[in-house]
Design brief:
Blueprint lengths: L11 H26 L5 H53 L5 H22 L6 H28 L3 H25 L4 H25 L5 H21 L11 H11 L1
């Protein structure tokens, strides 16, 4: 990955459960504190706590919408990148039919190897940075040989056909770079920490408000807390490629590589 992230390697469900527990714990602590100061509060203080609670709910809704939108856009970028890479590989393979016969078989064989390397990389968790880097390097080595074939073809036969084959290889390596960049791009952790902090503060305010008003938190409050934990899980799971329950569909790439083998 391009930058160090504190919580990236922590499973999504662990983070969601931790946020839920911290929110409930903050509510319990704040409720205990509220009971101690309950005798010194008046209707104005209760109204103020309710107003703060409503404001926090509005802020939370804004942060949830913003963060969910960010994670969903990252997920869409990765999905588009898979389709684009599959298309560029298929185009390069089709154009290899048009180059000279003495280089055609070698180019096709190398393109198959490149496709196999890229498809194998899909099975590697994005959290396994070492193995992932090795697979990218393997594809890069195959590409270097492919590019040399394209360069030799263009020098010997400087025609639109040879130039088109070289251009398709250039698009293919650009697609690899784009896809790797999309995998490394996540919702900034500062945004996630702000979101988690708002959850905990909201739990504390709900607990304190319920104590000074003399009304115990009901089922809707706990249902909302549980829903927040589920939303946290979805946001983080969407933001993490090749991990968790939500995964980018790799079938376009598999189909392109399968077509090369026929």
């Amino acid at each position: 990955m391009g930058q160090s992230e504190l919580i990236y390697d922590i499973p999504s469900y662990v983070i969601a459960v931790s946020v839920f527990c911290l929110m409930v714990l903050a509510g319990m602590v704040a409720r205990g504190w509220g009971k101690r100061v309950q005798l010194n509060t008046d209707a104005e203080a209760v109204a103020q706590a309710s107003a703060v609670q409503g404001s926090l709910l509005g802020l939370l809704a804004l942060l949830l919408g913003f963060t969910f939108s960010l994670s969903l856009s990252r997920f869409d970028e990765r999905s588009v990148a898979v389709v684009h890479e599959a298309n560029t590989m298929g185009t390069a393979y089709l154009r290899s039919d048009l180059i000279s016969e003495k280089r055609r078989d070698a180019a096709k064989g190398l393109l198959r190897q490149y496709g196999d390397a890229r498809l194998a990389a899909v099975e590697i968790s994005a959290a396994d940075h070492v193995a992932r880097a090795q697979m990218v390097q393997r594809a890069a080595v195959v590409f270097d040989v492919l590019w040399q074939i394209a360069a030799d073809e263009a020098r010997e036969f400087p025609t639109p056909v040879s130039m088109g084959f070289a251009a398709s290889l250039n698009d293919m390596i650009d697609a690899l770079s784009t896809r790797n960049s999309a995998i490394d791009r996540h919702v900034p952790e500062l945004v996630l920490f702000l979101l988690f902090g708002t959850f905990v503060v909201l739990g504390a305010v709900i607990g304190f408000s319920s104590a000074i008003s003399g009304v115990r938190p009901g089922v809707p409050v706990y249902a909302m807390t549980l829903l927040i934990a589920v939303l946290v899980f979805l946001i983080i799971d969407l933001d993490r490629p090749r991990r968790g329950l939500i995964a980018v569909d790799q079938s376009p790439l598999a189909a392109a590589v399968g077509a090369m083998q026929r």
